[in-house]
Amino acid sequence: MDVSRALQLARDAEVDLVEVAPNSDPPVCRLLDYGKLLYLTSKKERESKKGQRSTEQKEVRFRPNIGTHDLDAKTRKIREFINDGSKVKLTVRFRGREAAHQQLGLSVLKRVADELKEEVRLERPPTMEGRALSMVLIPALTQSEKADGAPKETNQGQEELADAKT
Length: 166
Hints:
This protein has about 170 residues and is of the alpha+beta class. Helix content is about 45%, strand content about 25%. It has two domains: about 5-50, Translation initiation factor 3 (IF-3), N-terminal domain (Ubiquitin-like (UB roll)); about 55-165, Translation Initiation Factor IF3 (2-Layer Sandwich), CATH 3.30.110.10. The chain is built from six helices and six strands, in the order H-E-E-H-E-H-E-H-E-E-H-H. Helix 4 crosses helix 6. The mean pLDDT is about 85.
């Protein structure tokens, strides 16, 4: 069908002539409402984005000789991040001779993990990364996720943390 005939049909039906396959030989066009097509594709795109869940990784830094009030304040902030659904990386930075006393940093991480044990799971146990000791916490499974048949969480990270402490 020639272009002028197709345009006349589109005007008569009060719709648009939309090229759907420009690279084919000959190009393929359809008679449809272009505004409705754009609306439906954007709606489909929004629906597909709803299923995706992007998680951020936040980092909270500590020092090995942190005060109790400072530790409590940072623990509250970690709790906020976890409730928002973010991963949280806890890092204890060592300076100078502090690196010789890694057990102090490990005890700080253990205190935080013990305080938040109901709300978090340990994704990565404490490891040394240069002059920093770090571990990663993720939000714990909710009751509905446990009922859906999600794999049981292991306390391997918690056990490693306890073993490292002793």
